[in-house]
Give the backbone structure.
Amino acid sequence: MKLIILGCYSATPRAFTNPTSQVLDIQNHLFLIDCGEGTQVQLRKHRIKFARIRHIFISHLHGDHFFGLPGLISTLVLLGREAPLHVYGPKGIKEAITLLLKLGNSWTNFPLVFHELSSREPQQVFEDEKVEVHTIPLDHRVYTNGYLFREKPGPRKLDIDAVLRYNIDRCYYRNIKNGRDVLLDTGEWISNEKLTSDPPAPGSYAFCSDTVYKPGIIGQLKGVGVLYHESTFLEEHKDLAVKTKHSTAKQAAEIAAGAGAGKLILGHYSVRYGNLEVFREEARTVFPDTELAEDGKVFDF
Ligand SMILES: [Zn+2]
């Protein structure tokens, strides 16, 4: 799994910083998560092929999280895209985007499929044979969801030496990888654990955009591999965090610690702080394995 941060600052695009957007490279999918203004420029800068993006997940309808979407869709029209594009986001996103397309009489020539969300409970929004995606209901000034991306467990790992030793025909390999025992021509049963080892543990990634401190999500995040959690403020401005329904770095760390996350990535910084390192220092007092998102940074996990 690979996470590419296209933008990770709050509020407005600036000369050297971009609002929220990231690309998750997982099991042959490139999932675009949030789409702040300038996202398409960032995609080009990082040489990410537009055509490979088939699913876009939007957390909420504040401008710094989705004003890049109409521009990106307009560019996809100009590029002659034909493949369907799926957009997941709060109820109202379809009306917002289609109004702009209608006013410009620039309808897409590809299927643009909206999956509008309004539930306050976690729900599965995507699934294929290797990955599933669930919403993480958050608490912000407007209806907001994070997203939890989970790999499904892969097949068991075949021990080639063992299968050769027992002279097992190739046609059984698929069944063995799926956990089945094997009956030899001699009538002897060979149990699966003699022929395979556990597959790599499936990875998971949780994206928690703008939200007030919400410990209620910890249960859903238990054991998550990597947690991105906004930290717009530091504890010294906790009152502002409460008022604007955002979190502090320490609160993000408390969510990570409670969930037993493998790693925490902070982002959505207010530009009032000149030095980002202070966010990491504050979070590390609670959760040591904390890293800072920065525009253009790539995380492999
Ligand atoms: Zn917001």
